[in-house]
């Protein structure tokens, strides 16, 4: 039975799972959510996600939700047969990947998500004016974060030196900043960060995911 992914087609949470599937070379079926009420039913809440959210992944009889948990499940189960190593077997190397994953969750993703929400959802989708104060504060925050990333990435193509799950999770928000906002300068003016983001966007799995 093919892997099924239930989710809205465009949001970062769905696409980070799609990117993981593509990196691992796994075939899957995307079941797009076109009506939000379909994920608020009693059946969906009881059997798919207790908070009525997506993405949800179904692999045979196994059901798992929350995008980062889904990605880790896929890596744990299928990486051994893939051409890419997203989380190394070596415990020290794996711990460093987890360290950078924590950076992404705590420092990188929150300000970028605020910017993407204002620019993509509020302005482009809903056609309403953005909250300039929110965007300004988020830009100031991410600038400080990227200053640190610029130092981390000195002499390296990827965060640990080799492509990993940590890099993968950073890719999505960066793509939205480039594609849907005028703020790509936050990456472009930092040579090491610029090179890193370019490396992420040039991967075959990335191009397939965000085509």
UniProtKB/TrEMBL annotation:
Gene Ontology terms: cellular component: cytoplasm
GST C-terminal domain: residues covered: 90-211
Keywords of this entry: Transferase
MF terms in GO: glutathione binding; glutathione transferase activity
Segments forming domain GST N-terminal: 1-82
Database matches in InterPro entries: Glutathione-S-Trfase_C-like, Glutathione-S-Trfase_C_sf, Glutathione_S-Trfase, Glutathione_S-Trfase_N, GST_C, Thioredoxin-like_sf
EC numbers: 2.5.1.18
Domain of life (superkingdom): Eukaryota
Gene Ontology biological process terms in this record: glutathione metabolic process; response to toxic substance
Matches recorded under SUPFAM superfamilies: GST C-terminal domain-like, Thioredoxin-like
Catalytic activity field: RX + glutathione = an S-substituted glutathione + a halide anion + H(+)
Keyword Transmembrane: no
Similarity comment text for this entry: Belongs to the GST superfamily. Phi family.
Protein name: glutathione transferase
Organism expressing this protein natively: Dentiscutata erythropus
């Amino acid at each position: 039975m093919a892997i099924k992914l239930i989710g809205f087609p465009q949001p970062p949470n769905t696409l980070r799972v799609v990117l993981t599937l593509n990196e691992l070379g796994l075939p899957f079926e995307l079941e797009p959510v076109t009506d939000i009420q379909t994920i608020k039913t009693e059946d969906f809440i009881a059997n798919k996600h207790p908070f009525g959210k997506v993405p949800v992944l179904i692999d045979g009889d196994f059901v798992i939700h929350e995008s980062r948990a889904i990605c880790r499940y896929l890596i744990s189960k299928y990486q051994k047969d893939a051409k890419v190593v997203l989380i190394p077997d070596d415990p020290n190397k794996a711990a460093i990947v987890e360290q950078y994953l924590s950076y992404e969750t705590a420092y990188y993703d929150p300000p970028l998500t605020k910017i993407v929400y204002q620019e993509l959802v509020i302005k482009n989708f809903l056609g309403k004016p953005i909250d300039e104060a929110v965007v300004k504060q988020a830009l100031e925050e991410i600038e400080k974060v990227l200053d640190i990333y610029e130092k981390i990435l000195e002499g390296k193509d990827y965060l640990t030196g080799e492509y990993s799950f940590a890099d993968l999770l950073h890719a999505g928000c960066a793509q939205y900043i480039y594609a849907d906002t005028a703020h790509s300068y936050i990456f472009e003016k930092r040579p090491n960060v610029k090179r890193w983001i370019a490396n992420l966007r040039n991967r075959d799995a990335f191009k397939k995911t965000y085509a």
